[in-house]
Design goal:
Elements (H helix, E strand, L loop, with lengths): L4 E7 L4 H12 L8 E8 L17 E6 L4 H11 L4 E6 L2 E3 L3 H11 L3 E12 L23 E3 L14 E4 H12 L23 H11 L3 E14 L6 H21 L11 H12 L3 H29 L1
Parallel strand pairs: 1-2, 1-4, 2-3, 6-9
Antiparallel strand pairs: 4-8, 5-9, 6-8, 7-9
Helix pairs in contact: 4-5, 6-8
C-alpha cells in the first residue's frame, strides 16, 4: 500500500548523538509506521551511513546515497525517491513531537489549498544563549507563534515554513524539481557541506521550495499544533557564526527575490543619508554595528551578483 507520508532526512557527516535523537523521536510517532515511509538521504558523508545507522525498526525505511554534495541535490534526490503525496523534510537535528506526523496528515486533508506548511520550532541549546544573541535566534530557525496563519502570496515570509520540519505536497516538490532543471543558478541557493571561513552561508532553498506552492495556485501556512525541537550546538551561538548567518540569509533572500520577480535596484545615497547612516552607526554598540554592516555588505554583494546575472543573460 502506498504510504500517506514520506519523511526525508538529508544529512552530511551528521552528529550521531543528534541523529539518534531525531530517529528516536520518529520511532515514537503516534502515526503508525505502516502509514509513512522513512528515507535517510546520505549526502556524500565520509562514512557510509547505511553501514552505521540502523533503520530496521521501521518496516518501510531506506538508505539513499546522494554523491552530489549540497542540501539542494539531497532534497531533489529525496523528492525523486519519495512515494507519498505529502513529503516531510526533517533535518538531522530536528526532534519531532510525537504527534507531528499525525497532525501533518490531518492538515494535508483539512487544508487542500495549501502546498507547503510548517509549525513551531523550539531551540534546545547546548549552552545558554547570551543576551546579546537573542535578537538573532530566529535566524537559527526558531519559530514560536500563537495562532495559525496562511496565505497564497509570494514573498510572504510570515506564513512561509522554513526547512526544519517543512511539509510539502509531492506535486509542489515535483514542480520545484522541474524549475531547477531549467535554472541551474537555483541549485546554489543552499549550502554545500561545511562552509569554509569567509564563504557565505547560503540559506533559502527551502523558501524557494515553499514559494513553488504559489506557482501552482496553492498557499503556504504555519500551524501552532505542529511542534519540533531544533538541537543547536554551542558553535552556532558565537558572534562570528551569527554574523556570517545574518549576512548569508540577507544575501540569499535578495537573490531568491530576484529569481521570483522582485529585483532590487541600487540606491543612490545622498550626502544627507550618508551623514544620517554614520550617526546611526555611532550610536550602536560594537556587536550591533557588526551585524548592521554584515547586512549592508550582503545587500551590496547580492545586487552586484544580480547585475552580473542580468548582463550575462543579455549577452
Amino acid at each position: 500500500m502506498k504510504p500517506a507520508l514520506s519523511v526525508i532526512i538529508c544529512t552530511h557527516n551528521p552528529r550521531h548523538h543528534y541523529l539518534d535523537k531525531v530517529l528516536t523521536a520518529l520511532n515514537c510517532q503516534t502515526l503508525p509506521v505502516e502509514q509513512w515511509e522513512l528515507l535517510l538521504v546520505d549526502n556524500a558523508s565520509k562514512q557510509l551511513l547505511s553501514a552505521e545507522i540502523d533503520l530496521t525498526w521501521h518496516p518501510n525505511a531506506r538508505h539513499v546515497r546522494e554523491e552530489q554534495l549540497g542540501l539542494t541535490p539531497a532534497r531533489l534526490r529525496g523528492i525523486r525517491e519519495a512515494q507519498a503525496e505529502v513529503l516531510v523534510f526533517v533535518d538531522d537535528d530536528n526532534v519531532l513531537d510525537s504527534e507531528y506526523l499525525e497532525i501533518t496528515l490531518g492538515i494535508s486533508k483539512d487544508f487542500p489549498f495549501l502546498g507547503a506548511w510548517g509549525g513551531q520550532i523550539k531551540g534546545d541549546f547546548e549552552t545558554t544563549p547570551p543576551d546579546w544573541a537573542k535578537p538573532y535566534l530566529p535566524q537559527l530557525a526558531i519559530r514560536e507563534f500563537e495562532q495559525d496563519k496562511w496565505s497564497n502570496l509570494l514573498h510572504q515570509h510570515e506564513t512561509t515554513p522554513c526547512g526544519a520540519g517543512m511539509c510539502v505536497r509531492k506535486v509542489v516538490a515535483q514542480k520545484y524539481a522541474d524549475l531547477l532543471k531549467h535554472d541551474s543558478l537555483r541549485l546554489g541557493l543552499d549550502r554545500k557541506g561545511v562552509a569554509r571561513q569567509g564563504e557565505i552561508l547560503l540559506s533559502c532553498g527551502d523558501s524557494d521550495l515553499a514559494f513553488t506552492s504559489c506557482d501552482l495556485g496553492l498557499g503556504t501556512g504555519q500551524f501552532t499544533a505542529l511542534k519540533l525541537t531544533h538541537l543547536i550546538p554551542a558553535s552556532r551561538l558565537t558572534e562570528e557564526y551569527l554574523v556570517r548567518l545574518v549576512e548569508g540569509i540577507t544575501y540569499s533572500h535578495i537573490i531568491l527575490d530576484s529569481f521570483r520577480g522582485k529585483t532590487p535596484t541600487p540606491s543612490v545615497t545622498s550626502w544627507e543619508k550618508k551623514v544620517l547612516a554614520y550617526f546611526r552607526l555611532s550610536k550602536m554598540n560594537p556587536k550591533e554595528r557588526r551585524f548592521y554592516q554584515a547586512k549592508k555588505r550582503a545587500q551590496a554583494l547580492a545586487i552586484q551578483e544580480i547585475l552580473k546575472f542580468q548582463q550575462s543573460a543579455i549577452a
